[in-house]
Amino acid sequence: MSNEELELMMLRRAESITSQRSLSSEIGYSVGKVNYVLKALIDKGLLKGERFLSSEKKTSYRYLLTDAGIQEKIALTRKFVESKKREYEVLQAELEVYETDMQTQGVKND
Questions:
Q1: Residue 42's domain spans which residues?
Q2: Which CATH number goes with the domain that contains 31?
Q3: What is the pLDDT of residue 70?
Q4: What is this structure's pTM?
Q5: 74-107 burial, b if ≥16 CB within 10 A, otherwise e?
Q6: Nearest to 46 by CA among 63, 65, 31
Q7: Structural domain includes residue 37
Q8: Which of 37, 75, 77, 103 has the greatest count of CB atoms below 10 A from its CB?
C-alpha cells in the first residue's frame, strides 16, 4: 500500500477512530506507524486532534477532518479511483489479447 493510500484510509476513518491501537489492528499496521501517519496528517493541517477524557483514568483523542483534510480526502479518492480505472483498462486489454490468442490457436472458450 502506498503512502497516499494509507493517508486516504486514515482520512476516511478519521472521525471514527476510537484508538490508535484499534485502527492499527483494523488496517494491519503497527501502532507506531499509525501514530506517525496521524501526526503527519495533523502537521499537514488535514486533521485536528482533540483531547478528551474517555474514562476516569484515560485520556483519548478524537480526530476531526479540517477543511483542507476534506479537500485532500476528495483529491486522494479521485486519484485512487482513476488509478483503479487504469488498472481495469489494462486488465481488459490483456484479456482481449489472451482471448484472441486462444481463438487463433483453436482453443474453445467455455
A1: 3-104
A2: 1.10.10.10
A3: 95
A4: 0.71
A5: eebeeeeeeeeeeeeeeeeeeeeeeeeeeeeeee
A6: 65
A7: yes
A8: 37
